[in-house]
Amino acid sequence: IPLSRTPRCSCxxxxxxxxxxxxxxxxxxxxxxxSCPRVEIIATMKKNGEKRCLNPESKNVKNILKAIRKxxxxxxxxxxxxx
Amino acid sequence: IPLSRTPRCSCxxxxxxxxxxxxxxxxxxxxxxxSCPRVEIIATMKKNGEKRCLNPESKNVKNILKAIRKxxxxxxxxxxxxx
Lengths: 83, 83
Prior knowledge:
Two copies of one chain form a homodimer.
Chain A: E1 24-30, E2 40-45, E3 51-54, H1 59-82
Antiparallel strand pairs in A: 1-2, 2-3
């Protein structure tokens, strides 16, 4: 069945080099949809604002997501100690 | 120690209502940084483009992240069956 809309994914290719959670400015997750049939995970790098598409199924992405989620409590308790 | 820059977080308040992974157009994760001392998770809703800030430490967010990551294989195999 041909799609009525041309699929428009943001990612052209997936970068398989592992990325460190600390080097990220932002991480975007775009679920599969009519306009793009696959999940897209787009990392924006702190250093130069470069955007990289990551592999949603990689261990690296799993770890990054966990690291970002967990980071808060660590940083905020550090803040309190510094204050 | 006063911060040299005014912190600028994107989220004013956290919405604790659980969100379904399927209703998301996009999910942004912004790690803690100098400009905002806490992790921010911003969900853009499919329905109306509304943005909601979610609690990074909630079980709901953990589940959403997992659901989005895992979704691909399911959808793409479904696509193959439909084609």
